[in-house]
Amino acid sequence: MGELLFLQQDVFPALMQGLWVTIQLIIPSSILGLAAGVAVGAVRVYGHPLAIRAGNVYVTIFRGFPLVVQLFIWYFGLPHIGIYLTPFTASVLGFTLCSSAYHSEYVRGAFMSAKRGQMMAAEALGFSRLQLIFSVMLPQAFRRALPGCGNELIYLIKYSSLAYMITCIELTGQGKIIASETFRFTEIFMIVGVIYLFLTTVSSWGIRRLEARLRLPGFEHHRM
Amino acid sequence: MPASIDAILDALPYLLQGSLVTIGVVLGAMGLGLLIGVSLALGQVYGPRPLGVPIGLYIWFFRGVPLLVLLFLFYFGLFSLMGLNLSAFAVAAIVLGLISAAYQSQIFRGAILSLPEGQLKAARALGMSDTRAIVSVVLPQALRLSIPGWSNEYSIVLKDSAVAYALGVAEVMARAHFVATRTYEHLPLYVAAGMIFLILTFLGTRGLRMLEDKVRIPGYSR
Amino acid sequence: MSEDVPVLRVEGLSKRYGEKPVLEDASFSIREGELKILIGPSGGGKSTLLQCINYLVKPDAGRIWLDGDEVVPARKRELYAYRQKVGMIFQDFNLFDHLTALANVQIALSKVRKLPRDEARKRAVMELERVGLKDHIAKYPAQLSGGQKQRVSIARALAMDPKVMLLDEPTSALDPELITEVLAVIRDLGLEGMTMLMATHQIGFALDLAHEMIFMEDGRIVETGPPRKILSTADCDRTREFCGKLTDLYGEAR
Ligand SMILES: Nc1ncnc2c1ncn2[C@@H]1O[C@H](COP(=O)(O)OP(=O)(O)OP(=O)(O)O)[C@@H](O)[C@H]1O
Ligand SMILES: [Mg+2]
């Protein structure tokens, strides 16, 4: 009985508060990350050679540095040059930049796999370059990139826990705090784990639904 | 920023020692992941149907829960509950390995399923037991096919190993932070740490590429 | 072994996939040194029959005897021993892609028959010489022509000293100019007295060498008899019709 009360009164409110922060981290990061990823990906395919170079360096660094290192750079490193970010802002910045690098890889692959003839056909119809990217290439590329980008979203949900390491107290952080106070590490982290499991499971289900709805004949994806 | 460069140079030997710790964690994790991953894949493909359920649950759990949560769960919770007193280093390697096993199992499973069915049939037709056929015919081919996926997994585990800092493992990231709080040269030190990871990724994937070339079956193109 | 015990005897072999019977009550036997040819339209169940014989496909019903001893597939050891004595040649070769020609022949000798390394190697080289591949033993499957691959697979089966060989359209995946080299090897085997059951559309070959022809359709053995009879004056209309087409396609026997 006391057990249940403890869960109800202490654990759940704290964890829900943490979950709310987690969600606040994930939503802007995923939207901004995807937008930036599409932009970077498009530049790396259709951009000026110099822009392509720059895009490749960007991706190498943001995919090559561990996310923890990136977060530390934004939170502890930027003050070195006089820029101070809150833990929350630093986290969103870190997640956005890192996931945009991954998204851009999928987007780039998707653009590259679009058949040359599609572009030629659009040009022959008098589309401008920007028009043809938006009305012909993007809708096709989007479908091809969706599985990879969807996966990236799942990763983002899990990696959002790293915000704790730069003192942004989200779900994992709340869990750590209560667990340390109560010494109930196993139970608390089990509960925290199950909440994440719920988030990742629901998201991957949603992504699969979206994939199914957007499916066009000839754009089937071969899942690994 | 000459002072920064000095700071990096001063800290470099210390950071590089940390990279040995990082490599240790990663090798342990990849090895454990290989062992469990191959078993899970074999269980999924060749095992009896009911076995698919616990394997599926394992994969679902370890792919769905964040690394940091699992590190805390195992380090502060489960292992001490079991009466095991493991070092942070060991826990990091084990947890990374358990997670990697879930991902690696899918690499191996894909590789096994991509082999033509005739390979197993021919082995059986020669009187091989299923175990023998798997060991002598399926695995040698499937493991070769898995190297590119494995290389990708290596670079993920390598980067994830920086999270072991949360348990106090003295790997590259932890050391960079330790020096940074002393010297106030945060930015250059974290960049240096990032570069070390970048180089380790490059070296590892390069090595695996060479391995792939070395074990390539003549007559097959990449 | 007494003269009148067949090497291989099959009784009432049946197999269905879901509702669809693909093999119905197949019975026949093969005596030592006989070559029997299996013909019939595509999807008639020839591959299924051959694969059921060594339990690569598990038959739903039926019994099999090798040299008069009944095979009990539930006893694993016995099954493995039985399969060693039944050589199997596949339409698409199924060489182990990661092994050289030599290793393909050697592997079952070492791992299944547990021969010492040297002995296994010697035997493997001998079998490869026998099929005319002495110069290619170090090549990998991807470096061999189709005809060479099929000859390696024959060497691989022969190395196990089979009592009987099952050949499932061994030449139908080959270019016409490679068919002859494989048929020549099989012909030699037949002349040396190897007991064989072979699915093929090579009418000329069948007429020259087969002791008997088995016509299969829709999973049933429709008719059995000497090749010349089956091909020209079969009792069953359906057999005559099919064989007429085959003869049109591949030409009358010389
Ligand atoms: N694994 C399977 N599942 C379902 N049906 C099958 C399977 N294998 C074979 N069949 C069916 O069984 C029937 C017999 O096939 P089989 O391969 O034995 O014919 P075949 O006489 O060897 O034909 P072919 O000359 O084309 O090789 C076919 O209709 C086929 O579709
Ligand atoms: Mg067939």
Radius of gyration of chain A: 21 Å
β-strand number of chain A: 0
List all distinct small molecules, including ions and cofactors, that are bound in this structure.
adenosine-5'-triphosphate, magnesium ion
Find the CATH topology of chain A: MetI-like fold
How would you summarize this macromolecular structure in one to three sentences?
Chain B has 222 residues and is mainly alpha-helical. Chain B has helices at 2-46, 52-64, 67-81, 88-114, 117-125, 130-160, 172-183, 186-214.
Provide an overview of this structure:
The complex is a heterotrimer of chains A (224), B (222) and C (254). By secondary structure, chain A is mainly α. Chain A has one domain: MetI-like fold. Chain A has helices at residues 2-46, 49-64, 67-77, 87-113, 116-124, 129-159, 171-182, 185-214. In chain A, helix 1 runs antiparallel to helix 6 (129-159) and helix 7 runs antiparallel to helix 8 (185-214). The model of chain A has no long low-confidence stretch (mean pLDDT 88). Chain B is 82% helix and 0% strand. Chain B has eight helices and no strands. Chain B has helices at residues 2-46, 52-64, 67-81, 88-114, 117-125, 130-160, 172-183, 186-214. Chain B starts with a helix and ends in an 8-residue tail after the last helix. Chain C is α/β, with parallel strands linked by helices. In chain C, helix 4 packs across helix 5 (146-158) and helix 8 (227-233) crosses helix 9. The B-C interface holds B 116, 118-119, 121-129, 132, 136-137, 140-141, 144, 217-220 and C 51, 54, 56, 76, 80-84, 86-88, 90, 92-98, 107-108, 111-112, 139-143, 153, 156-157, 160. The structure holds adenosine-5'-triphosphate and magnesium ion. Residues 17, 22, 40, 42-48 of chain C line the site of adenosine-5'-triphosphate.
What's the topology here?
The complex is a heterotrimer of chains A (224), B (222) and C (254).
Chain A: H1 2-46, H2 49-64, H3 67-77, H4 87-113, H5 116-124, H6 129-159, H7 171-182, H8 185-214
Helix pairs in contact in A: 1-2, 1-4, 1-6, 1-7, 2-4, 3-4, 4-6, 5-6, 6-8, 7-8
Chain B: H1 2-46, H2 52-64, H3 67-81, H4 88-114, H5 117-125, H6 130-160, H7 172-183, H8 186-214
Helix pairs in contact in B: 1-4, 1-7, 1-8, 2-4, 3-4, 4-6, 5-6, 6-8, 7-8
Chain C: E1 8-17, E2 20-30, E3 35-39, H1 46-53, E4 61-66, E5 69-70, H2 76-85, E6 86-89, H3 101-111, H4 117-130, H5 146-158, E7 164-168, H6 176-191, E8 195-199, H7 203-209, E9 212-217, E10 220-225, H8 227-233, H9 237-250
Residues 17, 22, 40, 42-48 of chain C line the site of adenosine-5'-triphosphate.
